[in-house]
Design goal:
With 258 residues, the chain is an alpha/beta fold. The protein has eight helices and seven strands, in the order βαβαβαβαβαβαααβ. Strand 4, helix 4 and strand 5 form a beta-alpha-beta unit. It holds the Pfam family adh_short_C2. InterPro entries: NAD(P)-bd_dom_sf, SDR_fam.
Length: 258
């Protein structure tokens, strides 16, 4: 590929889909990477990109995805799961292992292979989805929060390592967002976004729950030339929640196991 290429993992729905659309609008040829074939293919067709079926826990999938991209300029490592829910003493260790595999190991693999192809070219932007749960306690499932704290450390460490090669590494930290991932927990149906929006507390800043489109602008900024002097940082796109936490639907009910 000779175009400007961006990869979005977890790109078939929610934050990933909104960001894939925005990056396509910004002029990137977008590779939508996901395990959800039907919505991924439909999105890729709509935005003039490509769908690549990708399991982020499988290194061969990530390697093939990056090799397919060719002149990779932006990698948005967004795939993630809430995974193991409930009180700590009831943690399902198999589900915890899966959560770690997707959220932390998957991010590591994305960073590894993105840097592999960006370093010889001397440029590139890698963006990772983090969470308020990785920064403050009590606002996310236990294992999920631990993986996001790990992601934050990984971003800082890799950013320091690769800055000499012209590669920037940053994370975006969304607040509670109405998406299929959130709906699967709050509404027991990943497709019921309306019920999820009704359940979630509105942000005092904007008077409504967060939407995937609220994150797309932040990712567009981190992907583009306007952030050329930005690396190793967390961009909080959470309507101020992490700065001043208050009651939020992802800190109670099914997320907290009560």
């Amino acid at each position: 590929m000779s175009e400007r290429v961006a990869i979005v993992t977890g790109g078939a729905s929610g934050i990933g889909a909104a960001c894939a659309e925005r990056l396509a609008t910004d002029g990137f040829h977008v590779l939508v990477a996901d395990v959800a074939d039907e919505p991924g293919r439909a999105l890729a067709e709509r935005i003039g990109g490509e769908f690549v079926r990708t399991d982020v826990t499988c290194e061969a999938d990530i390697q093939a995805l990056v090799d397919r991209a060719g002149s990779l300029e932006v990698f948005f490592a967004n795939a993630g799961v809430f995974g193991a829910l409930g009180p700590i003493e009831q943690t399902d260790t198999a589900e915890a292992d899966r959560t770690i595999a997707v959220n932390l190991r998957g991010t590591l693999l994305c960073l590894k292979h993105a840097v592999r192809v960006m370093r010889p070219r001397g440029r590139g932007s890698i963006i990772v989805t983090s969470s308020p749960g990785g920064v403050v306690g009590g606002v996310g499932p236990h294992v999920y929060s631990a993986t996001k704290a790990g992601v934050a450390g990984l971003v800082r460490a890799v950013a320091a390592e690769v800055r000499d090669y012209g590669i920037r590494v940053n994370s975006v930290v969304p607040g509670a967002i109405v998406s299929a991932m959130t709906a699967a927990v709050l509404a027991d149906d990943p497709a019921d976004l309306e019920a999820t929006a009704r359940t979630m507390a509105p942000s005092p800043l904007v008077g409504r729950p967060g939407q995937p489109s609220d994150i797309a602008g932040a990712v567009s900024f981190l992907a583009g030339a306007d952030s050329a002097f930005v690396t190793g940082t967390e961009l909080f796109a959470d309507a101020g929640y992490t700065n001043a936490p208050g009651p939020a639907s992802f800190a109670k009910g099914k997320f907290a196991g009560r």
